[in-house]
């Protein structure tokens, strides 16, 4: 259970629900879609502030850029997480 | 990627691994030599900007993940993640040895839409008047920047450390821990924040500001090192042409 209140897709309404729908509509590899059917945890972590959620993940979307191939981007992301001892 | 060796990776990826590790754990060591190593492996200027941006963003995301205590989403066939049991981060150098940092993040414009998106994000995280006040945001930023050895926000000889000093002890301790050792964050750390009167939306913003500054400091340090290679750029060191500004 998260340390901070998290609002999932089923409980979301209004601005947050709109933000979740916009995020789900973004093109992304199927491997990024969790099997539990809710938004990914890192997105739900921002659920108390839908505007923060939108602006944060606009950056991640913009950085999905082919200046590096997908596998190299994933490598950089994974190494950064690993260096921070983070599972994410 | 769960191992420690990069010897079997292609040279470009091996260089990216080394760079991501250094910019994350020892940002104060990043300089023009690191950029030359990347370019020497054949990486273009836009691809280096992208690598810097990704490292920065994931320094934000990992701190939000650890600060909020979210759980893993994905089933995977990869070996289970195993914590290395690290309890301390690398020792920081004295401020005199911090890297020079530029105020501009304009180099993000080498990638379509990134500068605009990043600036839009930055404006909200750092300037939103609620649910925590501007003075709190400044104090949190000062702590996170100092731990990243970013003299632009936390300059040792020009600092106004009052904003950081005025934070309640529990808030500054939270910022220090999330900046330096995010992997050690626990529910008790968030409870300590709540004990100062912060509600959960405010706790989220405390986490976001600290995580954001940890990202921005690494972004600026990386981009500043790239900017110092401008002479090399003009000498044709970098491959060109895969992405245009």
Could you please describe the fold and organization of this structure?
- The complex is a heterodimer of chains A (88) and B (245).
- With 88 residues, chain A is mainly alpha-helical.
- Helix content of chain A is 49%, strand content 0%.
- Chain A contains four helices and no strands.
- Chain A has helices at 14-25, 41-44, 50-62, 70-83.
- The longest helix of chain A has 14 residues, at 70-83.
- Chain A is globular, with a radius of gyration of 14 Å.
- The mean pLDDT of chain A is 94.
- Chain B is mostly helical.
- Chain B has one domain.
- Chain B has helices at 11-25, 32-40, 45-68, 114-127, 134-147, 162-165, 169-180, 187-194, 200-227, 230-234.
- Residues 241-245 of chain B have low confidence and may be disordered.
- The chains are: A mainly alpha (88), B mainly alpha (245).
- The gyration radius over C-alpha positions of chain A equals 14 Å
Q: What is the helix content of chain B? A: 40-55%
Hey, roughly how much beta strand do the residues of chain A contain?
A: under 5%
Q: Which secondary-structure class do the elements of chain A indicate?
A: mainly alpha
- Largest protein-protein interface: A-B, 49 and 72 residues
How many strand elements of chain A?
Answer: 0
- Count of alpha and pi helical runs of chain A: 4
Element string of chain B (H = helix, E = strand): HHHHHHHHHH
Whole-number mean pLDDT of chain A: 94
Mean pLDDT of chain B: 88
| Count of strand segments of chain B | 0
Q: How large, in whole angstroms, is the Cα Rg of chain B?
A: 19 Å
Query: What would the principal axes of the Cα set say about the shape of chain A?
Result: globular
Structural class of chain B: mainly alpha
Order of helices and strands of chain A: HHHH
Q: Helix count of chain B, per DSSP?
A: 10
Principal-axis shape of chain B: globular
Please report the distance between the alpha carbons of the first and last residues of chain A.
15 Å
């Amino acid at each position: 259970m998260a340390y901070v209140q998290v609002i999932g897709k089923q409980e979301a309404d209004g601005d947050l629900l709109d933000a979740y729908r916009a995020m789900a509509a973004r093109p992304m590899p199927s491997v990024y879609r969790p099997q539990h059917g809710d938004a990914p945890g890192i997105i739900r972590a921002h659920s108390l502030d839908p505007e923060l959620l939108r602006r944060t993940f606009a950056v991640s979307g913009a950085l999905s850029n082919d200046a590096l191939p997908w596998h190299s981007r994933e490598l950089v992301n994974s190494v950064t997480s690993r260096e921070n001892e983070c599972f994410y | 990627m769960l191992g420690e060796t990069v010897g079997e990776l292609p040279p470009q990826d091996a260089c990216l691994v080394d760079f991501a590790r250094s910019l994350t754990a020892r940002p104060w060591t990043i300089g023009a030599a690191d950029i030359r190593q990347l370019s020497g492996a054949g990486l273009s200027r836009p691809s280096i900007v992208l690598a810097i941006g990704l490292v920065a963003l994931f320094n934000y995301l990992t701190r939000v993940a650890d600060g909020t205590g979210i759980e893993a989403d994905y089933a995977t066939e990869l070996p289970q993640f195993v914590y290395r049991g690290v309890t301390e981060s690398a020792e920081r150098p004295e401020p005199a040895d911090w890297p020079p940092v530029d105020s501009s993040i304009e180099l993000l414009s080498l990638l379509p839409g990134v500068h605009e998106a990043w600036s839009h994000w930055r404006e909200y995280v750092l300037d939103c008047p609620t649910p925590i006040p501007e003075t709190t945001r400044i104090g949190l930023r000062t702590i996170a920047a100092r731990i990243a050895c970013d003299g632009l926000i936390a300059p040792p000889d020009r600092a106004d450390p009052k904003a950081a000093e005025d934070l309640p002890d529990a808030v500054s301790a939270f910022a220090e821990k999330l900046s330096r050792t995010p992997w050690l964050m626990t529910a008790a750390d968030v409870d300590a924040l709540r004990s100062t009167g912060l509600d959960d939306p405010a706790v989220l913003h405390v986490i976001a500001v600290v995580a954001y500054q940890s990202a921005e400091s690494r972004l600026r340090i990386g981009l500043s090192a790239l900017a110092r290679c401008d002479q090399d750029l003009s000498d044709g060191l970098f491959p060109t042409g895969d992405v245009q500004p």
